[in-house]
Each structure stands twice: as C-alpha cells, then as structure tokens.
Amino acid sequence: MLKNIIVLAKQVPDTKNVSTEAMKADGTVNRAALPAVFNPEDLNALEMALDVKERFGHNVTVMTMGPPRAADILREALYRGVDRTILITDRAFAGADTLATSYVLALAIKKIGNFDLILAGRQAIDGDTAQIGPQVSEKIGINQITYTTEIVNIRSGIITLSRTLGRISELLKTKLPLLITVPAEANQPRTFGAKWFIKYKKAKTVRELESSVKARIKTGELKTEEQDSKIKEILEIYREKKLLIETWSANDLNADVDAIGLRGSPTKVKKVKSIVLTAAETKTIEATEAGINNLFHELIEDHTFG
Amino acid sequence: MADTYQKDGILVFLECDHNEIADVSLELVYKARELADRLKVSVHGILITGSTAISYSEPIFQRGCDFLHVTEDERLSFYETLPYTKIVSEIIHALEPQIVLFGATPVGRDLAPRVASNLKTGLTADCTDLQIGDHEDKKQKKIYKDILYQIRPAFGGNILATIIAPDHRPQMATVREGVIKIGPLNDKRGGEAIPFPVELNDSIFTNTIIKRTVAEKKLNLKAANIVVAGGGGVGSKENFELIHKLAETFGGMVGASRAAIDSGFVGRDHQVGQTGTTIRPKLYIAVGISGAIQHRAGMEESSKIIAVNTDPNAPIFKIAHYGIVGDFLEVIPMMIEAYKGKE
C-alpha cells in the first residue's frame, strides 16, 4: 500500500487560446480577459496520480497556491475523483517567484506528511519555467525525475518509470519518496466523472462559505448576530460531508515572512514589453534595396533579430 | 587571467550530450566571455563526466573559457539529479561566481532549479538574451551597478520580460539553444583544465538505469527563432541553395513546403505544415510558397512573417506581415546585403 500521493496544480490564464476578444487595439494581450484554467500539464500529472491510485491504492491530494478563485481548479480535481484538496492562499504570498512559491509548497507538503509520491506538471503555461518541481523536491530533500512519461510499476518502495530527456529515453528504477514532473505527451487526462460532479459541485472553501453567510445577512435572511454561529454550523456540515476545501494561510504553515511573497523572491521583473501578435494588415515592401533596408531596420528595432 | 579574477567570475555548466559537449553549452561559453570582458572577470566551466575529458577542452577554450573544472567519476556517465546538484553546488561555493549559466535543455532545466533552490538564489528560465546593466531601486534609493539582465519571453510568448536578481548571488539563468550568435573563434586561445574532485557516497546514486536509448539528432525546427522556408516556386535544388544561404546568414534554419519536398529540393525533415512540423518562430520568411492552408496551419502563428512571391495574389500574402512581390533570386541577395550592413 502506498502512502499519500500529492499533486501540485496551478490555475493559469489560458495563454494558449488568445482569442480576438483578449486582444487590445494595439495588438497586445489583455490578460484580464483571458479565462483562468487548470494548467494543462498539471492535468497530466493528476491523470498519472489517479492511474497510480487505481493500480496501487491510496489517497490523492491536490494542492494549489493562488488567489481564492483558484478553488475552481480544486473542484475540477474533485470531479475527477481525488480524495482531498487544499487551497493555499494568503495575501502575504502575493508576488512570489518560483523560489518563494516552492518554499510554501514544501511547507504544505511537510504538513500533510506521510507521502510517497509528489506529482506536478512539467511546467505552467503562464511562465513556462519548469522550476517549481525541482525547487520543491530540493526543499523537502527528496529525489526527482522530471519529464516522466510513464509509471511502469511500484513495489516495496521502488518505482520503475520511463522518462525522456531530449533525445534520451530512460527506463529506470529509483526509491520512493520521489517527486516527478509530467509532460503533456504522457497521457490523455480524463474528463469529469458524473457521480463526482454531482457530489462535489457543492464543495466550497471556508471563505466561500463565509461570504455566502454574509450575503444572507445583507439580504436580511439572517441577523448580524447570527453570523458566527451560522458559519460554524455550516462549516461543520460541509466538513462532515467532505465538501469542505481546506484552506491554509501563511500562519497555518508557520511560514517565515522573509521567505514568502515579494520579500522572499530574489528575482524581480525590471521591465515588460508586450509583443504584438498579429499585424492588422500586410505591409507591402518594395523589392528594392531601399525597401528591404527599411524592412530590416524595422525588424532590428523591434528585436525580431537579436 | 590573473588570479585576482578568479572569484566573482562567470560559471557555465558544460553539458555532455552523448559524449560531446552540447551546442548550447559552447554558445554559453561564448556569451559568458562577452559578459566577462565587460565585467573584467574570468569565465569558468564545470564539466561533469564519466570518462576522461581532455579531448573536450579545446572548443571550450577557443570560445573563451579561462578555467575548466572537471569532475570525473565513472558513476557520473549519465545525468542524475542528486550527484550533479551536489557537484554544481560545491563548485559554486568554491568559486563564488556572480553569474551561473545553464543551457535550457531538459538536463539544464532539471538541474538549475535544484541548485538555485539549494543556494536560495534566483533563477530565470529559458532566457533568449543576457545583458549587463545598472538598476536603480527608487524606493530604497539604491543603485545596482553591472547586474545581469535576464531577458525572456513569458505569458505564452506574448510579452518579453527583463528579470533581475539585484540582491542575490549568484545570478542564475538557463538560456535557450540557438539564441546566442557565435562569432569567429580564437584558435590560439588556451585555458587551464583543473580537476575538481568531489566525494560522492554510493547512497547519492539512487537511480538504476534499466534501459537507455539515444535517438538520432533530429533537425529541430521548433527550436529555431528564424526559419527561412522555400516552396515549389523556388524551382530547383540549385536555386534552393539561396534559401540555405539566407538561413545561414540569420543563424536560422531551413523550412520547406510540401511542394518543395516532393520536388526533392530538400529533405522531408524540413517540412513545415499540417503533415510536417508546426512552428512559431520569431521570424518566418516564406519564399516561393503560395500559402496553401495545410502549409499555413504549420506556420501562421509565427511572430513575424515575410512573404516573397512573384504572384501578388498568392494566399500567403493574406497572413504575412510583410509582403514582397518580386523575384527571390534578386530579393534574397538584397536581404543578405541589408542584414550584413545592419550588423
């Protein structure tokens, strides 16, 4: 029997499907207009975790660090059949780079404890860094196998798996516990299961439950003095029905304030330049020396060259 | 190469790709030299290998490496995260470089974040350019001199971000293959190879390889920033030489439409389109390609598209950012001249 399986997931803006509505007049992307989605390769990691659960048993926990609305992807994970979800959210985490993020995720993993396998997507489509997996495994002091395409077998603490490193393919054995990252080509993620969808549609975070109570006070349905007892009562019901999405803050994790958020992030963004995606029109260039010289001048200016 | 230059230098991780130094590592040494000359410091390389490394050293020195540190151990023949992390972390502790560079290869992207996490320093992934510059922190009224600008696309390639790590050393980055242009090499340049022995317990080698296969080196059009592609309109294999020449001038790769491949102008691995490779380079130059939908599906997401065609009504012009109606036999030589003039 395996110990806990933990999947690290991220909610990301859907950069792969930049629609015309998400474009500003100047041809740059309006990020606010992009829908937030389950990071695609994290779904591949989740699929691999659920497959391991079916073959070798035990619980799958999905955790994500992000703003409160990231609870959406945790519900999506529940619809696919995971056992436990944890939202790690706190204003103090804002502005975290990969080092500060991996510190928090490592604390949360240690808090869950008793794990054999940690899975994450190879990379997230908003940053494409592929850094979180390795940085987390270093922080919790376990081995990692990135680019894992298949788990072949798990037996007595030894895992056999396939991975690709560029043009190199390896079939290898290593010890648990282990962190693996999963690329898109590994599998085809499953869709929602009907019975889970019906059950977990109602799954809520503490914060979501609190605001629903507050909304009922606003409409006059509940009295202000009833707020605290009502919240307590509802939380209890949700916990009992396993519909409560756990929410952990910086305090819950005893996080060092100097290691989280902007303060814990060595890297800073100095400058950002939008890249214009589509030309409104085709520019006609004269097939003359002057025409081509001007064109190349333009391409050097906009950094197409170099 | 004075000894005083030893600390505070630039360290490059030299990746062995199946018994040879990976191209990207050599590109990085070249870039490191450029940055090091600006900073007046030394370039160090760390090479981790399972067998004797002497034959590797010449191209590394020619590209500007001063000190080549070699960790040799037969258990290190194949990349493995934990021992490699230990060695790279140790050389960083020993040399205290201000900058550490890795290729953004699968190995580099496995290793660099692990090392950065260990050293609690910043890391920027997948850079397409590196520069040295100053930074003013207005809040703290502090000026940082000569720090590393790490430039990378982000947000699905929709933005170009300049990342810095002003308060942390070393400054670390992984850099994409093929983005650094290598100039002429200095054949006479030498350097010093220094053994860097690291004690490794057997327990750090946790992986047992059951089977390992290495695929043939394939033409990787996806990695190219610039692709020059020819179509049926190019007319002959001889004419197609001009496509190769233009691609070479830009340091780009050669693509082709199905028509060009079926006519035997160039090999099938160059095919761009629905049945070939789908690419989105920074610049795509379509020469003598009419722009059938199957071809367009493979390249229309390129950041910039230049089309050269004698037929002003060719569909390729509908998706091109720049259209040149003319004979490529005249236009390409003009392009080569124009580019060389701008360098």
Q: Could you walk me through the main structural features you see in this protein, from its secondary elements to its overall organization?
A:
The complex is a heterodimer of chains A (about 300) and B (about 350). With about 300 residues, chain A is an alpha/beta fold. In chain A, about 30% of the residues lie in helices and about 25% in strands. Chain A is built from eight helices and 15 strands. In chain A, the strands form three sheets. An eight-stranded parallel sheet of chain A has the order 7-11-6-1-4-5-13-12, with helices on both faces. In chain A, helix 3 packs across helix 4 (about 130-140) and helix 6 packs across helix 7 (about 225-240). Chain A is globular and about 80 Å long. Chain B is an alpha/beta fold. Helices cover about 25% and strands about 30% of the residues of chain B. Chain B contains nine helices and 18 strands. Chain B has helices at about 25-40, 55-60, 80-95, 105-120, 235-250, 260, 295, 315-320, 330-340, and strands spanning about 10-15, 15, 20, 45-50, 65-70, 100-105, 125, 130-135, 140-155, 160-165, 170-175, 190-195, 210-215, 225-230, 255, 285, 305-310, 320-325. In chain B, the strands form four sheets. Chain B has a seven-stranded parallel sheet, with helices on both faces. Chain B is globular. The two termini of chain B are about 30 Å apart. Residues about 1-5 of chain B have low confidence and may be disordered. Chains A and B meet through helix 3, helix 4, strand 7, strand 9 and strand 10 of A and helix 3, helix 4, strand 7, strand 9 and strand 10 of B. Strand 14 of chain A pairs antiparallel with strand 10 (about 160-165) of chain B.
Give a short account of the largest sheet of chain B: 7 strands, parallel
Oligomer: heterodimer
Distance between the termini of chain B: 30 Å
The proportion of residues forming helix of chain A, as a percent range, comes to: 25-40%
Percentage of β-strand residues of chain B: 25-35%
Order of helices and strands of chain A: EEEHEHEHEHEEEEEHEHHEEEH
Unreliable sequence segments of chain B: 1-5
Overall spatial form of chain B: globular
Q: On the 0-100 scale, what is the average pLDDT of chain B?
A: 90
Instruction: Quote the distance from N terminus to C terminus of chain A.
Output: 54 Å
Give me the secondary-structure category of chain B: alpha/beta
Side-by-side strand order of the widest sheet of chain A:
7-11-6-1-4-5-13-12
Helix-and-strand structural type of chain A: alpha/beta
The amount of helix of chain B comes to 25-40%
Instruction: Indicate the proportion of strand residues of chain A.
Output: 25-35%
Q: How many strands of chain A?
A: 15
Order of helices and strands of chain B: EEEHEHEHEHEEEEEEEEHEHEHEHEH
Q: Helical segment tally of chain B? A: 9
